[in-house]
Task: structure prediction
Amino acid sequence: MSRSGKTHWQAMKWILRYLQGTSDACLEFGKNHDTLVGFIDSDYATDLDKRRSLTGYIFCIGDCAINWKASLQPVVALSITETEYMTVTKAIKEVLWLRDLFGKLFQHQGVTTIYCDSQSTIHLTKDQMYHERTKYIDVKCHFIRDTIAKGKVLIQKIHMKDNPANMLTKPLPVYKFKQCLDLVGVHCW
Result:
């Protein structure tokens, strides 16, 4: 604060405009509170300086978002499939933590479904075979297969237009952004 400049002033104005534009937005909780569902997406090599990819996930209980995150991946991915696979890894880590938390609050814990719009990533999470083309994917990411085998998580396909995690990883037109907000229970009055 002692050395604020024009950049800081512009950032503050941006934050105030954002707050003014979203002051009527709110999360709407429904009665369905026993189903934890996740949506993931990534954008390949979004960071133009370091060529890192953007990861985004949203978790909902019923139709209401309870947890979301968008961040740059810590390493450079060599393919779109690897980017999505690393996103699934982050999402499964988060879902295991959420399942533990909600296991203490609610008794029922079925399989948690995570929706992904990458068919190749879904196949990679289910296929136990070694593939020459995917050998560069780090071994630590393969805990996904163990989690799926234990029946805690299910990875399913979702069409790109129905994936609310797109709003975390891609610039969208206003109507599409509002559609994504509606999908996760954020409503503007």
User: Anything to note?
Assistant: DSSP finds six helices and seven strands in the chain. The chain has one domain: 38-188.
